[in-house]
Amino acid sequence: MNLPRYFFFIFLFAIIVSCSSEKKKTFLADHTALNSVLVKSLDGRISSAGDLIKGHRVSVFYFLMPGCPMCEAYTLPINEMDKKFSEKGISFCGIFSSGYYSDEEILSFRNDFKINIPFYRDIDSKLTHSVGATVTPEVFVLDSTATILYSGSIDNWAYSTGKIKMEATEFFLNDALENILNGKPVALKETKAYGCIIE
Fold first, then answer.
1. What's the burial of 86, exposed, middle or buried (CB within 10 Å: 0-12/13-18/19+)?
2. Where do the domains of the chain lie, and which CATH numbers do they carry?
3. 146-168, pLDDT tens digit by residue?
4. 90-96 and 58-64 as β-strands: parallel, antiparallel, unpaired?
5. pLDDT of residue 22
6. Which helix (H) or strand (E) holds 96?
7. What is the reported pTM?
8. Residue 11: its H or E element
9. d(CA 159, CA 139)
């Protein structure tokens, strides 16, 4: 379908239960804080969340959910961010918290929307609780010490509960990554994310 994404998803988005992330994010003290948090790849390999940030200047965690209309609407920007920044020392991965959906549903989501980044299940939801993720999609940008440099929305397309713009006009994640790569402080460190509630 070639219709703009807001036409394609507006009905589904209107009926989902949405909320903003009100909880203050936990700023992880150091890399070792993630070493006890386990994640599982879709091929069954278990590793620590700390391994996901090793060897990378910056790591981006997208909290996602199969069947969430907002996650589906953001798959194009997710792929665009990966294409633009992955060769500049920035890694991207999708994190799935809830145990209410199967690996097959996650794999189908990735294949249906041709998402290029690796996916991981958050075992026991410890990573979700550590960073304070509450909705999907919600993004967290971490440096190599596991300090959260930015968290919240990818952009301002969804600007309130159940409300979306015709198109995004502010690109929070892109701007944060550009600042980091250019050695500048992240001007806007946190925004509210709107989408499907993580249960």
1. middle
2. 30-197 (3.40.30.10)
3. 999 999 999 999 888 778 889 99
4. parallel
5. 40
6. strand 90-96
7. 0.85
8. helix 5-15
9. 15
